[in-house]
Amino acid sequence: MEASNVCVWGGDLFDFCWSRIGGGEVSRKAAIDWLEAWRAEFPDKTFVYLTGNHDAQAAFRESLEQWARPHTQPEDLSPSDTHSDDSDSTGSAQHVRLPIRPGSVHVGLDAIRLADTLMVHGDVIEGGRHSVGLDQYRNRWAHEPATSPANLQNGLYDAAVTARLHLAAAGVAHRRRSTCLRLLHWARQQPDWMHQDIGQVVFGHTHRCLGGVHVAGIDFYNAGAAVKHVKFEPVVLPVSVSV
To answer: InterPro entries given for it (predicted)?
Structure first.
């Protein structure tokens, strides 16, 4: 963090379905407090939080917007730079050209581009790559636990992780080359400025760590996941952008 000017959180940092500290407002506040601690420690850096399927809950997205509002200037999101299209070809992603201002915070985005680097959570390839399908996919994680944090669901999830079943599922669902090509196909359905001349794609979602896999002339990176038995390495790349 100390060596970077821009920190992009790629989504899925939190999952309110499986919270161990309590559902609803308690968990959302803990999440925002954690983010704010980083922002307060590095007030001159730019922070971006991309939307992931595990943290796409409407109430949390509202909390994110409230947290970011004091650090976002109105001109940062001009109407001419924002694209939202409900057609099947583009999906429901929000695409914004962001001015990188020291101390700014940007949330509510599915993807951003910095120089020749495209950053996206990765779940945009789910749901048939159209808006309705993606929304339905994300809604699977919108609910909160109805019982105490130490509930049966958490126990079953822990058992699955211990047995490393999550690794097998990720390997089957997200083959490396296939996933990279699906992301590239999605990107090419977006406005030209988002995908033309990109050289790198950084994404999450698949829980599979990639350290620069070269596919179709582009290097793909994935940090993995901070889950037991899963390799996790934050992606740090030199990217030159104008401020």
So the answer is: Metallo-depent_PP-like (IPR029052)
